[in-house]
Design goal:
Blueprint (H helix, E strand, L loop, with lengths): L1 E2 L2 E2 L18 E3 L12 H13 L3 E3 L14 H4 L8 E3 L6 E6 L11 H10 L6 E6 L2 H10 L6 E3 L3 H9 L4 E5 L7 E6 H11 L4 H9 L5 E4 L5 H14 L7 H11 L4 E3 L2 H8 L6 E5 H5 L2 H4 L2 E5 L8 E4 L4 H13 L3 H9 L17 H14 L5 E9 L7 H13 L8 E7 L3 E9 L2 H12 L9 H18 L3 E9 L9 H11 L3 E5 L4 H9 L4 E4 L5 H12 L1
Parallel strand pairs: 4-18, 6-7, 6-8, 11-12, 11-13, 16-17, 16-19, 19-20, 20-21
Antiparallel strand pairs: 1-2, 3-21, 5-7, 8-15, 9-15, 10-13, 10-14, 17-18
Length: 557
């Protein structure tokens, strides 16, 4: 299509982030440098209309594409396991590889298991161990999909171990507890006092009741990726029916408190950054992290919940006897007093008196609970999302090709119950798809638009965002019970049209999260956009971009 002597392209986009506990390269930015020019909601519509009227907007004719109705192949979207570092490498004739959760196989106070492993390898034992640092949810996905099965698995809690068993992977418990930890809800001291005054006690049950009554604004992490997030989901379902967490009463109870959850993050780091803005009364966190964070201990109370995070150790598959022996020796080695003392210094082995009141659950029940979360997490609220694609000349080549690939694969995770619109921009802005339910027809048009993308012209990023906001406000006028989202795919180099200074007050007034994903990008510029309403920004210049996008959609859509 020709316009003003330049090829205007057609479309597309979709976006971001993460998951796992785990989602590499994903950054949730905090609320930074707010503009002094705040506007009221009443004035926002008028200012939006004024900005929109000055933008050259083209409504493109739909282009149908061939859609792939086969279910998404989750295993194929997992990056190569080498993406996750070996924090300790064994060199003996008999070496076992252990997938370990990150809070004990990282650096500094999160490196307890590494220290134990290093000493074990130097001890003259019958074999050695290799430690791969990988979040429990992500590790479980590698193992259950068969893409990468290590000799052993040391997740944060037993829930993941049960899921591995339910998937048909031979799993034998070597040690119920390597090191002690407890999940909890971190609550601001002021809110904690208010809950005590009303309910007489603060525990998971009273917190869930307060959430149901819209008296407590709490965030938690993705239960497909985060150990604490999964534990909280199970705890919530159990609170409403402790005999059957999958019953109608449990699901209805879940929907009642989920309706008042303002924020779900892919990782604990993202949750903590969001909490800094003051938007949350509480959020989930492990005690080991809480006790190492002086800024949290001064302002928040810790309330334990759910099953303990005692870091069990499982042997996987049909291991030869000599490897099983190494694992057994390693588990006993870790129980020495000096490693218990080291664990204490690193924040582990606290709240030893805490015990869970929940009965053990099998892996198939836990997997079903995750599915309930995915299906019911948005309740009766509908979602309208507009994807804003940068098709300027600077995106030509590899960046645009990668954008297309990620959109075409990522669109399988959008969900037919969501309403989706698509905008592309260069010098001007094109509406490639108005906001409609993402049924088969809309999906076909999305695929066709993405496949037709070409790069040319300048970069008017904020014009694209203005058009997306206008589309969403019009949609909210027709469907008020809608949660609006914007996703921007760009290299971040804006050189035409409106500026951030002009558009930022509107983003703030409408409180629309603007997620960004950068292709060979000025990441700082994109992070600034996402920081306005506590959204996330990711770097797509890695081989795991589709995985990041899938995890983002799993949480947000």
């Amino acid at each position: 299509m020709m316009k003003k002597g330049k090829f205007l392209l057609v479309s597309g986009l979709i976006v971001l982030l993460v998951f796992g506990g785990v989602f590499f390269g994903i950054k949730l930015t905090s609320n930074l440098g707010k503009t002094d020019k705040q506007i009221t909601a009443e004035n926002a519509d008028k200012q939006l209309d004024e900005l929109y009227s000055k933008i050259d907007v083209t409504k493109e004719k739909p282009i149908k594409g061939q859609i792939d109705l086969d279910p998404a192949d989750a295993a194929s979207e997992l990056p190569d396991i080498s993406k996750f570092p070996l924090t300790v490498e064994g060199t003996g004739n008999t070496t076992v590889e252990i997938f370990s959760s990150t809070e004990k196989s990282g650096k500094g106070k999160e490196g307890w298991l590494n220290k134990v492993a290093e000493d074990f390898n130097a001890s003259g034992a019958s074999g050695q161990v290799t430690i791969r640092s990988i979040a429990s949810g992500t590790a479980t996905e590698y193992i259950t999909s068969g893409k990468s099965i290590p000799d052993a698995f040391a997740p944060s809690n037993e829930l993941w171990g049960e899921m591995v068993k339910a998937a048909g992977v031979e799993s034998n418990l070597i040690e119920k507890r390597l090191v002690g930890n407890v999940p909890g809800i971190v609550i601001s001291k002021k809110k904690h006092d208010q809950l005590i005054e009303k309910y007489g006690a603060v525990n998971a049950k009273t917190i869930l009741e307060a959430m149901t009554e819209d008296e407590f604004a709490m965030g938690y992490t993705d239960p497909f990726a985060s150990s604490t997030g999964l534990n909280f989901l199970i705890t919530g379902l159990n609170a409403f029916d402790n005999k059957n967490v999958l019953s109608d009463d449990a699901v209805k109870g879940f929907e009642s408190f989920q309706a008042n959850v303002p924020f779900t993050a892919s990782t604990t780091l993202q949750m903590r950054e969001a909490a800094k803005s003051g938007m949350l009364d509480g959020f989930v966190l492990e005690y080991q992290t809480y006790t190492n964070a002086s800024d949290l201990k001064d302002s928040y109370e810790f309330v334990p919940f759910g099953v303990r995070h005692d870091n069990p150790l499982y042997a996987l598959g049909e291991l030869p006897a000599e490897k099983v022996k190494v694992l057994e020796e390693f588990a006993q080695f870790a129980k020495q007093d000096r490693y218990k003392e080291l664990a204490k210094k690193d924040g582990f082995n606290g709240l030893e008196e805490y015990q869970s009141e929940m009965k053990p659950l099998d892996g198939s029940t836990i997997t079903s609970a995750q599915k309930i979360w995915k299906e019911k997490k948005n309740g009766t609220q509908s979602i309208a999302a507009v994807f804003v694609a940068d098709v300027s000349g600077s995106m030509d080549g590899e960046s645009l090709n990668k954008l297309k690939e990620s959109l075409l694969k990522g669109q399988k995770y959008l969900g037919k119950d969501n309403s989706i619109g698509l905008v592309s921009y260069s010098d001007d802005v094109s509406i490639n798809m108005p906001i409609k339910k993402f049924d088969v027809n809309q999906q076909s048009e999305f695929v066709g638009a993405v496949e037709s993308l070409q790069a040319n012209g300048g970069t008017a990023t904020y014009d694209g965002i203005v058009v997306a906001m206008k589309m969403l406000q019009d949609e909210l006028g027709k469907n008020p019970d809608t949660r609006p989202l914007i996703f921007v795919l760009s290299d971040g180099d804006t050189n035409q049209g409106n500026s951030l200074k002009a558009v930022r007050p509107l983003i703030e007034a409408y409180k629309i999260p603007v997620y960004t994903i950068g292709y060979n990008a000025d990441l700082k510029a994109l992070e600034t956009i996402s920081s306005i309403n506590e959204a996330a920004s990711i770097n797509a210049d890695t081989d795991d971009v589709v995985y990041k996008i899938r995890n983002l959609f799993n949480v947000q859509l």
